[in-house]
Amino acid sequence: MRINFNEHGVLVDTHGVYPLIVRMVAKDLEVPYVDLQGLTEKLEIQYGTEKSKSLHLHFEPGENPYEPNGRHDDTHLSEKGANLIAILALKDIAQKGLELKKHIKPQVLGQISQSTKK
Fold first, then answer.
1. pLDDT at 115 over 70
2. Is the pLDDT of residue 52 over 90?
3. I want to staple 74 with a disulfide (CB 3.0 to 4.6 A). Which of 3, 35, 51, 111 is the partner?
4. Are residues 118 and 46 in contact, defined by beta-carbon separation less than 8 angstroms?
5. Where is pLDDT greater, at 59 or 107?
6. CA–CA gap between residue 59 and residue 33 (Å, rounded)
7. pLDDT band at 1, cuts 50/70/90?
8. Degrees to nearest 5, angle at CA 56 with 45 and 87
9. Domain ranges for the chain
10. CA distance 57 to 5
11. CB–CB of 55/44 below 8 Å?
12. Mean pLDDT of 49-55
């Protein structure tokens, strides 16, 4: 999900029908599906207009040595955003009891609920 809050603070989707089509294909083919678009949408809303910037590459000039002129990127994730979204994916895999769950370390699953809180 990209940061795209309107003037009323409502997150506006930018992907069109693509996520819906992917959900429908997964259902039709009866394959496991982790809805990262839906999960990240909830995370962005939870963080809100300003705090959601911490989930993306938002740097002021001089704040990050890799982006000396600053960067305001509403699409690509910061380390914090990438970690939280990875946790959301792992949590969904575990909750659905997918085969991949056996590859998730138990201590990671134990930390998941704490990590997604603000």
1. no
2. yes
3. 3
4. yes
5. 59
6. 33
7. confident
8. 70
9. 18-115
10. 16
11. yes
12. 95
Question: CA gyration radius for the chain?
Answer: 16
The answer, yes or no, to whether residue 35 has pLDDT greater than 60, is: yes
Answer whether 68's CB lies under 8 Å from 13's CB.
no
> Can you list the pairs that 84-89 forms with residues at least 24 positions away whose Cβ atoms lie under 8 Å?
84/43, 84/55, 84/115, 84/116, 85/36, 85/39, 85/40, 85/43, 87/112, 87/115, 87/116, 88/36, 88/39, 88/40, 88/43, 88/116, 89/34, 89/36, 89/39
CA distance 68 to 48: 26
Q: What digits encode the pLDDT tens for the residues 58-103? A: 999 999 999 999 999 999 999 999 999 998 999 999 999 999 999 9
Question: Which residue is it, tokens 């506006």?
Answer: 12
